[in-house]
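Standup notes, protein team

Yesterday: finished cleaning the Methylomonas rosea set.
Today: DUF1845 domain-containing protein structure.
Blockers: none.

Input for DUF1845 domain-containing protein:
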Amino acid sequence: MAENPDQEKSKRPNISRPVFERSFKVNSEQAIRVIRNSYDRLIRSLYAIDVILRIVGQEQAIDEIEAIVSSMIAECAEQLQQEKARLEKLKADNGIDETPTYTHPREFVAKIASPQIAQFVELIRLLDQLMIHMDTLWLCQVINNKHCIEARYQWQQRLQRLANRIVTIERQAHRAAYAQGHGEEVRLARQESGLQVEPETVSEEESVADENDSIKLADDGAR
């Protein structure tokens, strides 16, 4: 007696994909928040984009989107590097060679399943290093409280906005696949890959959470 299609699908083996696991300590609250708010959703979206476009058979589109995402991340990395260099010079000009410790650092294990994920993980590390320099200058009274609070929040939001843009790219690719008549293929592939059937979105609750983070940052700086 033949097995039904659902049973056959359930017996399909999981795809063996290459993954690097990299573990490192994250010190600053801003980098921790980016990991908590954006990292998991980002890696799911990058994976979904690859799954969707390969079903549609648009190899050129895959290359183009990978190039766009890499360019967006590289631009952000350059901005972080420039600001980090500026703060390092400010520390040197003021004879500061101390580095603060942090009360609640986190151990972060990043699963690197694509070059773009590796690039974003490096952004998180750069953000953490930048925040350490900024906190050092603030504790040594080189930059004032207001400037430090605003800069912390702005840099954190820059990475979270970047992650949100990538999530939006996934949603656009998903809609385009349905419009081209590949809806059922995409739906099944998302299920088999452990993805939600519908792409994630940036919710109103997350917008409120961003505002709450801003308020908390102000409270942190005041203490």
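Follow-up from PR in the comments: Residues 18-222 form one domain.
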